[in-house]
Amino acid sequence: MEAVKKREVVKAQKRGLSISDVILVGVLLAVGAVLKFFVGSLFNAGMKPNFIIAMYCLAILLIKPRFIEAIFIGIIAGAICQVFPGTPYINLISEPVGAIVMAILVYLPLQIGKFSLRPVIGTFLSTLVSGMTFIGVLYAAFYTGADVKPMPFQVFIVIVLGTALVNTIIVQVLYIPLKLALGRGKND
């Protein structure tokens, strides 16, 4: 009699974003663009809240991309920001930096019991880092002679902190329902 061999199930390593991941990123970034256009038009302080950040944070939370994929998501988000009035090209730097922060935080064990703090901490810090990067690049451009007119730092910081708070709430509210609707599992 032959011995029965144990069967092993080997899970294939993820090698990039699936088509559904790409579509999800595209839809979420489009939602962020619509929010930025309509809600952002209510602000007239020179710098407007950027809801595209909330949407790429949500996308990164849901799909857990590799580091390089998160950078590309940030670049695409920055490119979408170029459609809107404002200081050109700076979002092409600030959004990838924010996406990198989110990608790093997605893999850290940020939990209290069964409650994941990743949406809250990740979105708040990513928005804050993206906003501070934006401000830093803007001021650097100004002090090197570029034709930009930055507002006082205090005004910028209030807008960045306010945007970080609003983005955090948006992502926290949407994360669990979207995660469950997309079948992304109950565990983080």
From TrEMBL:
Keywords: Membrane, Transmembrane, Transmembrane helix. It comes from the Bacteria. The chain crosses the membrane at residues 21-39, 96-113, 120-143, 155-176. This is Tryptophan transport protein. The lineage of its organism: Bacteria, Bacillati, Bacillota, Clostridia, Eubacteriales.
